[in-house]
Amino acid sequence: MSRPSCPRCTRPLEHCLCALIPSLDSRTRLLILQHPSETRHALNTARLAALGLRNAELVVGERFDDLATRLAQPGYRACLLFPGEQAQPLAAHAAQVDEPLLLVVPDGTWRKARKLLHCNPLLDALPRVSLPDGLSSRYRLRKAPAEGALSTLEAIVVALEIVEAPRDFAPLLAPFEALIEGQIAAMGEDTFRRNHL
């Protein structure tokens, strides 16, 4: 029998994060495209980002038939937050664009995120932007597959702080930190130190 869950943050009621989730405005619009395998993940950071930002939308799937409509938001210029050879630094791209950005963020493992791009050719046609090198994740429960790899929520916070400087989007990280602390407490400090430090 499953434990009762919060309908908003989907965490078990005794671990609900809603009190920590802010409600922030941003000039930048976010379209988070989540691979279905991520929805059941205990650390669903894309959901936390969508809940904490008023100008964000989370869409779950592999193929998005209405993607052209979602990308054609009046008054916004769409770009894809995803590293690669053609990716331009986000700060440089934002400086060249007069309109607010519609930042499209794929959410999933690197393999699943690449699959989203493959299944949705419109994504690959977007200008691609990347975050600066040398970033480090607060995600202490998972080894990063590459240096500078961040959770989706962390990447969104960094991106928004670049595009909308000097605004501070760190309050979005409060439920993320609580989630990690809760996971560490559940496994026990000794187990955490043995397996993750």
Automatic annotation (TrEMBL):
Entry annotated with the keyword Calcium: no
Domain DTW: 2-188
EC number: 2.5.1.25
Keywords: S-adenosyl-L-methionine, Transferase, tRNA processing
Keyword tRNA processing: yes
SMART domains: DTW
Domain of life according to the entry: Bacteria
Family indicated by similarity: Belongs to the TDD superfamily. DTWD2 family.
Name of the protein this chain belongs to: tRNA-uridine aminocarboxypropyltransferase
